[in-house]
Amino acid sequence: MDYTVIVILEILRAISWLVILAAGLAIIFGMMKVINFAHGEFLMLGGYITIMSHNAGVPLWISIAVLAPLTVGLFGILVERLVIRHLYGRIIDSLLATWGLSLLMIGGVTMVFGNTVQGVSTPLGSIAIGAYQVPGYNLLLIVVAALLMAAIWALLRYTSAGLIARATMQNPDMAETLGVRTSWVYMATFGLGSAVTGLAGGLLAPLTGVAPSMGVNFVAQSFITVITGGASMIAGTLSAGTLLGTISQGVTFATGPVWGDAALLLAALVLLRVLPQGITGRIFRKSL
Amino acid sequence: METSLHRDAGFWVMIAIGLALLVAGPLVWDLFQIMQITQYVVLSVYVLSLSYIWGFGGILSFGQAAFFGLGAYTFSVASINMGETTFPFLLAFGLPALFGAALGYFMFYGKLSDVYMGVVTMVVTLIFWKLINHTAGPEYAIGDARLGGFNGIPSVPVLNVPGKPEAWLDPGQMFQVFMAILVILYIVLRTLIASDFGRVSLGIRENETRAALLGYDVRRHKVIVFAIGAGIAGMAGGMWATYQTFVDPNVFSLEMSAKALIWTMAGGVGTLAGPIIAVVVLQYLSLKLGEMHVLNNNFILGGIMMVLVLLVPKGGLPTLRDALVALKARTPAALQR
Amino acid sequence: MTLSRRSFLQASAALTTTLAAPSILHAKTDTIRIGGLHDLSGAIDSSGVPMDKALRYAVAELNAAGGLLGREVEAVTYDPQSNMSLYSQYATQLALKDKVDVVFGGITSASRETIRPIFHRYKTLYFYNCLYEGGVCDRNEFTLGTTPAQTIAQLVPHVMGLWGKKVYIVAADYNYGHISAAWVKRYVEENGGELVETEFFPLDTTQFGSSISKIQGAKPDIVYSLLVGTAHLGFYRQWAASGMKGEIPIASSSFGGAGTENVMLTPEEGNGMVVATGYFPSVDNAANASFKAGIKTFYGNDAPILGEISEVTYESVKMWAQAVSETGATERMGIIQELEKGKSYDMPAGKVAIDPDTHHTIRDVYIAELKDQEMVIQKTFNAVQPSDTQMVCNLSKDPDSNKQFEISL
C-alpha cells in the first residue's frame, strides 16, 4: 500500500517535472515555431543564477522564483533581439544559431562562474509515508507544475495580452494589419518562454546541483515532450507530459533507469507514427 | 547546376583536385598530415550523406549519427569476428541502408511533417545512444566483440587488402583508398543527381504535391533517397572506426548529428563541394583552437556558429558564387571577352 | 591476428621514420618537451583543468630547480575538448610533430584507449593518471591511479565493521561501475555480508527518486556508491532530501577522486560519508605540505582543488623527472627500465612504487570521513598492491602486450 502511494507520487513528480521542463519551450515553439536548441543552457543559466545568488546571501525562494526567471527572461529578450529576430520562418537556421548559442553559453558560464560550484541543499525536508520517506520538495514540484499551467492558461484566455498573442499565433499578417506589433509580441513571447525555463532551472538547482554542461541531459526530454504534445501549448504539454512521465517512471520502477529512458523514447516514436502532428494535432484540437 | 554534368567545370575541378591529392598526398605529406587529412576525407564522406538527402531530396535528418554509428559498430563487430575487413566494410553500408529504408518507410508512409521527422530521427539516434551506453556488462557481446558500453570497443582492425586478411594497409594506403572512395562517391552522387531519378528528387524537394500529382510515387522515392543517405553515413562510420581503430558511443551522439547539419549549412545546402570545404575548415579550426589557451573553446566555436548563420545564411559556397556572379555583372562587358 | 597487427605496426613504424626524418633536423634541442592532454572544455573539464594545472605546476617546479639535465622543461599541452577524435589527433601530433619525450594525460577510459595505442605505435612514453577499472597491460604506459581492488578491498571490510552486513550498491552504468561492483560483491561476500541489490545508472541520470524508494524498501545497512560525474551528485542531494541522511550511511570508492565532489555538496549533504582513494589533501607528510603550499602560491586564487587525479598527475611528472635524472637521458627504454626497478618514491600521497609486472602503482590507500567538505583521514593502508591488474597482466613475461584486459570475477 505504502509502496503504491510512493510509486504514484513518483509518477506525478515525473509528470510535473516534464511539464515544468517543457513549458518554456512549448511557449516558444507553440507561438513562434522557433526551435530553441539552447533550451538546456537556459535551464542551466537559471540554475546558476539561483545557486550563485543564494550563495551570495539571497533567500533561496527569492532566487528561484524571482531572480532566476527574471534574469533568464531578460537574457532571452536580448537573444531574441540580437539573433532570433533575424531568423523567423527559418526553422533550421534558428536551430543552428541556438545550437551555437548553447556552446557559447556553456563556455561563457564556465569562464564566469567556473565548473565547480557548491550546490544548495534541497529545502522542505522529507515526508514519511509508512516505511518510506520522500522529499517534501517533490510535492512542491507537483504544485508548481499545476500552478504554472493554470497561470499560462489564464494569461492566454483572459488577458488582452493573451488575446493578442493568440491572434498573432493564428494569423500574424492579419494581426499586424489590425495594428498589433507582431515583432514585439514575439519578443515578449520569447522572453516569457525564457523566464519559465529560468524558473525550471531554479527549481532544478536544489535537486541536482549545477554544472555548465548539464543542459544536454534535459534538452532531448523537453523536445520530445513538446513535439509529441503538438501545437497546443497547454493541452499538448500536459497530455504528453502525463503520457511520457507515466510510461518512463512506471518502467523505471519495474526495471531500472535505463529502460525507463528507452521506454520514453520508444513511446514518443510510436506516438508520432500514429499521430504525426502530435497528440493535440488530433485530440484536444481546439484547446490552448 | 542541373545542366549537363560533363559541361560543368566545377565537377571536373573537384575530381582533378581529388585525384591529385590521392596521388601526390602520400609523397608530399608527413605521417601526421596524412592522418589528419584522412580524417577530413572520412568526415567528408559522412557530410555528403546529409548534403545529398537534404540538398537534393529535401529530407532533413537530425539523425545521420544513427546511421554513422550503426555503420561504425557494424564494421567493428563484424571485422573483429571475421578477422578480415572487406565484407564488414560492405556490411557497414548495407545494414544502415536497410535500417534507413525501414525507418524511412515508417516516417514517409506515416506522412510525418518536416519538424516532426527531424525529431523522430533525433529520437532514434538517442535510443541507439542510450542502449549502446548500456552495454558495459560482460553479457553484451556479439561473438568475440564486447560492446563495452560507454568505453566503446578498442582494437578495431585496420583495413586489409580484399582477400588477404594479413595485408594491412599502412596510413598512406588507407588515405588513398578513402580518397578514392570519396572521389567515386562524388562522381556517383553527381551522376545520380543529374539522372532522371535525381530530377524527380529535386522536383519533390521543390513541391511534393505537384510531384505526386504528376504521378510520381513520392513516398517510395523519398524512402530510396533516405536509404542511400543512410548507407553512405554508415560507410563513413565504418571508415571512421577503422581509421580510429576504436569506436565508442559518441558516434551516436547528438553532436555528431548536429555536426553534419552545421557542415552542410556552412558549406551551402544544395552543393556537394561546399560541405566538404566546410568540414576541412571547421575541423581545422577546432584543432587549432585546442592548441591555444585563450578562451574557453566552446565559447569561441559557439560564437562562430552564430555569426555564420546570421551573416552567411546561404552557406559558404553559394555566397561565394553569388559574389563572383555579382562581380562579373559589374565588370564592363568588353572586359569579359 | 596478433602477428598481422604487429607487421602492420612495423610497417607504419618504418613509414614514420622515413617520413619523419627531415623534420627531426628542425626540432629544437635546447629544451626537453613533455606533452599534456587534458580536457579543458566540454563535459569533463572539471577533472581536466585541475590535472592540467598540476602538470604545469610540476613543470614550473622542475624549472625553478634548474630544469632537467641542465635543460629547461617545456610543456606542450592541448585541449581535446572532451572529444575522442581530437584526442587521437593531438596524440598523433605530440608523438610525430612535437616529438615530445613523454605524454601525461587522458581522463576517461575511452580517451585512454584512444591514445594509448597511438603512443605505443609511435614509441612515445605515456603516463595515465586517473583512477580507473584496471587491466591495462602495456609496457609503454605507466598507470599511476588506483584501481578498484586497491580501494574496495580496504573500504568494504572497514565499513562493514562499522555499520553492518547488508549492502546495497548504486553504480554508474559503464565499465568502471560494473567491474567495481563485482569487486564490492566479492569483498562483501568474503567478509560474510549480504549483497541486497546492485543498481546501475546511466551517466546522465539526474533523478534518483525511484531508486531511493527501492532502497528504503530494501533497508540495507550500507549504501555503497560507485556513482561518478556531476549528474550523479544529484543522488546524494536527493538522498538527503528524502531524510535518509543519518538513517543509512553511504560508503564510496568513486567519490572524491577528482577532489571536487566534496566541495559541490553542502556539509549537511556530505557529512558522514566514508570514502577511500589514493590521496586526500589532508594526508600528513612533508612532501604533501610543500606540494599544497607550493601550488597555492603558484596559482593564488586560481589554485586547483586537489584530489587523487591532480596529485597523481604531479606525481607522474616528478617520478618521470627523477628517472630522467637517474639515467641521465630522456630515452624511453632507459626510463622504463629505471622505473621498473620498483624504487619507492616519496610523494605527497605517501610512498609510491611501480609494480614492474603491471606498470601500475603499489601505493598507500586512505579511508576518510567527509566532515564539513573536508576529508578527515581515519585509516591508512601502506603499500597496497594493484591485485586486480596483477591477475591478468604480467609484463615481465609478456613485454609486448598492448591491450586492456577484461578483469572478470
The helix-strand sequence of chain B is HHHHHEEEEEHHHHEHHHHH
Q: Report the radius of gyration of chain C as a whole number of Å.
A: 21 Å
- Tell me, what's the shape of chain B? globular
Question: What percentage of residues of chain B falls in helices of 4 or more residues?
Answer: over 70%
**Whole-number total of structural domains of chain B:** 1
Largest sheet of chain B at a glance?
2 strands, antiparallel
Report Rg of chain B: 21 Å
In total, the number of strands of chain C is 16
How many angstroms separate the termini of chain B? 23 Å
Quaternary organisation: heterotrimer
CATH architecture of the largest domain in chain C: 3-Layer(aba) Sandwich
Count of DSSP helices of chain C? 14
Return the average pLDDT of chain C rounded to an integer.
86
Sheet with the most strands, sense and barrel status of chain C: 9 strands, mixed
Number of domains of chain C: 2
Protein name (chain B): Urea ABC transporter
GO molecular function, one term (chain B): branched-chain amino acid transmembrane transporter activity
Pfam families (chain B): BPD_transp_2 (PF02653)
Membrane topology (chain B): Multi-pass membrane protein
Could you please describe the fold and organization of this structure?
The complex is a heterotrimer of chains A (288), B (337) and C (409). In chain A, a hairpin with a 2-residue loop joins strand 1 and strand 2 (132-135). Helices cover 76% and strands 3% of the residues of chain A. Chain A contains twelve helices and two strands; from the N terminus they run ααααββαααααααα. Chain A has one domain (2-215). In chain A, helix 1 (2-32) runs parallel beside helix 5 (136-158), helix 1 (2-32) packs antiparallel against helix 10 (233-254) and helix 5 (136-158) crosses helix 6. Chain A has helices spanning 2-32, 39-55, 60-82, 91-113, 136-158, 160-170, 172-177, 182-208, 216-229, 233-254, 257-274, 279-282, and strands at 126-129, 132-135. Chain A starts with a helix and ends in a 6-residue tail after the last helix. Chain A has 288 residues and is mainly alpha-helical. Chain B is mainly alpha-helical and 337 residues long. Helix content of chain B is 72%, strand content 4%. Chain B is built from 14 helices and six strands. In chain B, strand 4 and strand 5 form a beta hairpin. In chain B, helix 2 (31-57) packs antiparallel against helix 9 and helix 4 runs antiparallel to helix 9. Chain B starts with 8 loop residues before the first helix and ends with a helix. By secondary structure, chain C is α/β, with parallel strands linked by helices. Chain C folds into two domains: 2-146 and 283-364 and 388-404, Rossmann fold; 148-277, Rossmann fold, CATH 3.40.50.2300. Chain C is built from 14 helices and 16 strands. Chain C has helices at residues 2-24, 45-64, 84-97, 109-121, 148-163, 175-190, 209-218, 233-241, 261-264, 267-270, 286-299, 308-327, 332-339, 387-392; strands spanning 31-37, 72-78, 102-105, 125-128, 136-138, 141-143, 166-172, 194-201, 222-226, 250-252, 274-277, 344-347, 350-355, 360-371, 374-384, 402-404. In chain C, the strands form three sheets. In chain C, strands 7, 8, 9, 10, 11, 12, 13, 14 and 15 form a nine-stranded mixed beta sheet that branches. In chain C, a hairpin with a 4-residue loop joins strand 13 and strand 14. Residues 1-28 of chain C have low confidence and may be disordered. At the B-C interface, helix 2, strand 5 and helix 11 of B face helix 1, helix 3, helix 4 and helix 6 of C. Chain C: InterPro entries: Peripla_BP_I, TAT_signal. Chain C: It comes from Pseudooceanicola albus.
